[in-house]
Amino acid sequence: MSAHPFLQLSGVSKYFAGTRALENVDFACERGSIHAVLGENGAGKSTLIKIISGVLRPDTGALSLDGQPFDFANPAQANAAGIVCIFQELSLVPDLTVADNIALAQPPRRYGMIDRRAQRHRAEALLARIKCEDVDPNALVRDLSLSRRQMVEIAKALGKQPRLLILDEATSALTRNDVETVYGLLADLRQDNVASLFISHRMNEVERLCDTLSVFRNGRHVETFSKGAKTDGQIVRLMIGREVDAQFPPKPAPTPHVPHLHVDNLSWEKRLRGASLTVGRGEIVGLGGLDGQGQKELMLALFGVLRGVEGRVTVGETQGVPTSPAIAKQAPRRIALVPEDRKTEGLMLPMSIADNLLAASYAYVSVGPFINPMLESQAVSEAIAKLQIKIGDPQDPVATLSGGNQQKVVIAKWLMTDPDVILLNDPTRGIDVGTKQEIYRLMRRLADEGRAILFYSTDYAELIGCCERVAIMYDGAIVAELSGDAVTEEAIVSAALNIHAAPVGVAS
Amino acid sequence: MPSAFSRLRPEDKPVVISAAFIVVILILGTVYTLITQGSAPLFSPNYLLQQLQTGAFLGIVAAGMMMVILLGHIDLSVPWTLTAAAMMATAVGGEMALPTGIAVGIAVGLVNGLGVAYLRIPSMIFTLGVDSVMRGLMVWHTGGFAPQDQATPLMRFLAAEKLLGIPVAIFVWVLVSLVIVTILARTAFGRSIYATGNREAAAYLSGIRTRWVIVGAFVISGICAAIAGILLAGYSTKAYQGMGNAFLLPAIAAVVIGGTRILGGQGRYVGTVVGVTLIVLLNSVLSIMQMPEAGRQVIYGSVIIGMLLVYGRDKRLTG
Amino acid sequence: MSTPLANLATSIRQNRAFTGAVLLLVALFLLYNVLHPRGFSSAVLIQNANESVAIVFVAMAQTIPVLLGGLDLSVGAVMTLSACIASVLVNGSPLQIILGMLVTLLAGTAFGFCNGLIVVYGRLQPIIATLATGAIAMGLALFIRPKPGGDIDGDLNWAVTNSLWDFVDTYGLFDADAAWFAPVAWIPVPLLIILVFGACVWLPFRRTVTGRTIYAIGSAEGAAYMSGLPINRAKIAAFTLAGFFAACGGLYLAIQTASGNADLTQAGAYTLNSIAAVVLGGTSLLGGVGGAIGSLIGALILRVISFYFRILSIDPLLQPLVEGLVLLAAVSLGAVRVLRIRNRLDLFR
B interface mutation test: which of A330, A351, A376 has the most B CBs within 10 A? Predict the structure, then answer.
């Protein structure tokens, strides 16, 4: 082994709008090894790989590859240096063929033109290497299933002859057979002296595959150790960290709640498979599980966004699935949804804070057909005061606020409609601890006012800290419901992994 | 001065720059007339009012166009909606002339809106098709000749007469403007236009009926084109083939020069008024200078590009 | 797995809109010839081809910015400008004629290049930038040709607007009555021009990295960036090539009519028809899907429809109505997709 590590980061930090994503990170990885990067959501893993692969530039710190310092301006430069990343959000062009995509930027050429025959042969060879002979190189990527696209993405990365291969949750959408293929491939690459960085949430996957593990938490690199040096329990504790600063408001004494929102056997396409659940007035019910098990679809279905939903939904006395958000938010249902992605679904970023706050409640500030400026400014300042949103001027664009304050605007927008049912889709993702605590307190207060709250979070600690009951989703259905003292990290994790049902991957 | 300018809101900058440019045009034009003719017609109220009278037609078209552009769409059916409204109004005549013309505008707007909002066909192509259909219907209706129907006295009054020394057409423009400003600033529908134009998904998830909003905006555009058509027929005493052709591109240009984002979501109505004024005055100064059509087109295009390079640039694409 | 037949099947399935357009054109054209009072003849074909060249080129020009997800509202004006330049330059000695044609094509190409620079470095929306540059192009055209007219070499006009036989005969290239030449002598020169330019410019360009990048930008600009494709170069190339094709259209129009005419209305009509042709030919206005050959077909469909009015003695006044209805019907077919969407949020993407 050479004197210096193959890939080395020293003192790397990255900040987004004042919140830290990475802080003073030292990190190294070697050739011929498969190196796992572990951490909770928001621990800084994806920022780390984006910096390594040239998508982002670090605010401070230095990077080097094979002893050579580098600072890539774009992913193309990183590719040229042999750093290839398989991103979670795919980098495939849907309207081009599989063969086109695999050789996208550096196709084989003849007389200056793309040699399609050679390109197809190359695609066939690469697809064969990952046992995807069933994928037609002439098929359009848009016509492939998600798992096939993921495999094409892997073939594309292989075609770039990586020296450092980064896999960001690259197995999340794969079938069990594909996962085995990818494992074999990674082992082969290790033989060929390629360095692999492997990001995954699945402990058993990491155990089987990797030889070195690094744990990240809150944007910091906590520890790196060899496989087998620590037990599962120790690793999980490292990931969670016990100095967790989040403080939750005290839960009230458990009392039986009359169900207000009643979901019975809800199905939609293949994403929801008979989900059933109740939420009472004054109750915060948590929704847990691995990412993408139908939690988002459940909320969208309740809010009237999805077409062709089957099953029964009752809100108070009102039966039936609403057919649009406009109907869902009105009496008698009075449902509110804080959506997953506040930048594209929650806010109109270039518009003013005041306009965003009012977007769901024009009817409440209108006299006859006209919006009353008095009522309007009164409502806006009330909302800002109620949630203690820190702003300069309500007429400033909402894009100028920090993430936490933006999320408060989304929540305040819905509180102006005085909802009875509040659906929260991971409302604390990517916001600072202080605002998180304010949101926890707010949720408790809203529940105490008699509203029914359904709260999806990818952070188990939040579910434990905030919820009387937690429903765990797996493959479109609720597989476990925990309540009272049974809401523990171990219970949530084992229910979320549905351990006895599917140890590896999710068969599609 | 630079600090005062940089403190302006982004949506006000175009208005201020365009207004300043109007002053520059007036000054340059006056310098020219003083040197060549020794008079300053550009500052005579009568001349300005006369220019604004013809500007009113463009202004009304632009007002409707702005509603659609605020949604990130475009209405290419304006030329023949305008013509159809004028032809139908003159053909029906009498008291029903005006309601008929407006009804044509509403009908075309509804078709456009339904195609764009419900079938989700790009407005660029759908309104183009509707324009062609309207042209076909009108040519068929008139046999391709100039219709002989005369504009009704009311149409003449609205377009060509004066009230208190001011052309009535300007009053109509003001009235349309008041309605549009009220809609945009003081109604849920107007606010929803901005929200939908900025991000339709977020507007939809806020419980805004975005499809109705789109249909509504196209209907307003249709009505505005119809009003302009009725006025233009009144001004020329009759409707004629292709009377709307000269309005489409200047209307879009006026809206965009006024600071409305072509991708939707941002823009103030006062900007559109300033944009219309700018285009009308630019045209009249160029005609005073007896600038040949060639020079006019070049100057016209250069002004649009120049103004947009100052304030209309997109954000740089980053990773 | 990848037999030629299977490849063809895949390709047809992937280009359903294109295939539909070809079938529609073939059907329309066959029916047209059946209904034609004099049946199929070379003379009719020549006349039809002559009337199609300009719109075909302008439609091909429009395709490339549309593939990017943009739009070029200046194609009609650039075509007009080129026609006006040609009407001044394309005459005199053979060398002067060739030089004049080159200058014409170069001027249009340069204009397209400027469009590209403005869009990329001025960071303006293509639709509004080309709206303005279109006005500038019309202004320049009016400078050159304040009144319709012009001076085009008569031989050239005759040679390229008739059959191959006439072309060979005009320039005395070889014995036009040679037996080996007879099977192809009837082919109209304009048809050849369309096919040659389609095959020799567009198809190779499509297979360069720049060409592929245009598709990638229209389909997923973020993925194109992530994959390290040359985005700025491709955008400039797209508008430059659009300028080139528009200039080809203008050059032919000038030779065909032996004049240049800076007609604002005509330029606007060409621009709008080019958009219609692009959509009819199966290119998505959202970008990433389609191609210039499709637009060639789309433009021919528009033209063939207009030929019907002549032979069926339908009132030609109905023509815009029928054209509009055909366009609306064609794009409404694409709306079937909307009915299949189950998650309404997908409507907004």
Answer: A351
**pLDDT reported for residue A1:** 45
Chain-wide mean pLDDT for chain A? Answer: 84
Say if residue A332 is preceded by a cis peptide, omega within 30 of 0: yes
Residues A194 and A302 in one domain: no
Residues A168, A304 within the same domain: no
Residue A246 lies in a domain: no
How far is B241 from C265, CA to CA, in rounded Å?
12
CB-CB contact of C129 with C116 (8 Å): no
User: What residues of chain B, 246 to 275, have a C-beta less than 8 Å from chain A?
Assistant: 265-266
Average pLDDT of the segment spanning C47-66: 92
For residues A355 and A393, membership in a common domain is answered with: yes
Interface of B with A in 219-238 (CB under 8 A): none
d(CA C309, CA B309): 46
Tens digit of each residue's pLDDT (9 = 90 or more) over A436-445: 888 899 999 9
Q: For C280, which residue in chain B has the nearest alpha carbon?
A: B125
Whether A169 is in a domain gets the answer yes
List the subunits that have 3+ CB pairs under 8 angstroms with C. Answer: A, B
Domain span at residue A484 reads 258-334+419-499
pLDDT tens profile A176-196? 778 888 888 888 888 888 888
Q: Which residues of B touch C118 (CB under 8 A)?
A: 305
Distance of alpha carbon A502 from alpha carbon B98, whole angstroms? 71
Distance from CA of B92 to the nearest CA of A (A): 33
Which contiguous run of DSSP H or E holds residue A423?
Answer: strand A421-425
* Topology given in CATH for the domain delimited by B9-311: ABC transporter involved in vitamin B12 uptake, BtuC (1.10.3470)
What's the whole-model pTM score?
0.84
The reply to whether A79 touches chain C by the CB within 8 Å rule is yes
Whole-angstrom CA distances from C79 to A408, C90, C98, C255 are 54, 15, 18, 13
In degrees, rounded to 5, the angle at the alpha carbon of residue A240 between the alpha carbons of residues A238 and A246 is 140
Task: Give residues with Cβ within 8 angstroms of C299, minimum separation 6.
Answer: C52, C55, C56, C58, C59, C60, C273, C274, C277, C281
Contact, A196 vs A31, CB < 8 A? no
Q: How far apart are CA B67 and CA B69, in angstroms?
A: 6
Residues of chain B where predicted confidence (pLDDT) is lower than 70: 1-10, 312-319
- Residue window 39-68, chain A: list those with CB within 8 Å of chain C: 55
DSSP string, C134-185: HHHHHHHHHHH-SSSB----HHHHHHHTSBHHHHHHHHT-S-TT-GGGHHHH
Among A359-368, B207-216, B226-235, C13-22, name the one with the lowest average pLDDT.
Answer: C13-22
Residues forming a β-bridge with A13: A60
Say yes or no for a CB contact (<8 Å) between A344 and B199.
yes
> Do A354 and A407 share a structural domain?
yes
Residue A92, pLDDT > 50, answer yes
For residues C280-298, b (16+ Cβ closer than 10 Å) or e, as one string? Answer: bbbbbbebbbbbbbbbbbb
Selected for mutation to probe chain A from B205, B213, B263, B266 (highest A CB count within 10 Å) is B205
Nearest to A380 by CA among A350, A342, A415, A328: A415
User: Do A397 and A349 meet the contact criterion of CB atoms below 8 Å apart?
Assistant: yes
Mean pLDDT of chain B: 87
Please, what are the domains in chain C?
Answer: 44-331 (1.10.3470)
What number of helices (H) and strands (E) belong to chain A? 16, 24
Q: What is the pLDDT of residue A18?
A: 58
Q: Is B125 an 8 Å CB contact of chain C? A: yes
| Interface contact B128-C272, CB threshold 8 A | yes
Beta carbons of C154 and C258 less than 8 angstroms apart: yes
Chain A residues in contact with C11 (beta carbon < 8 A): 138
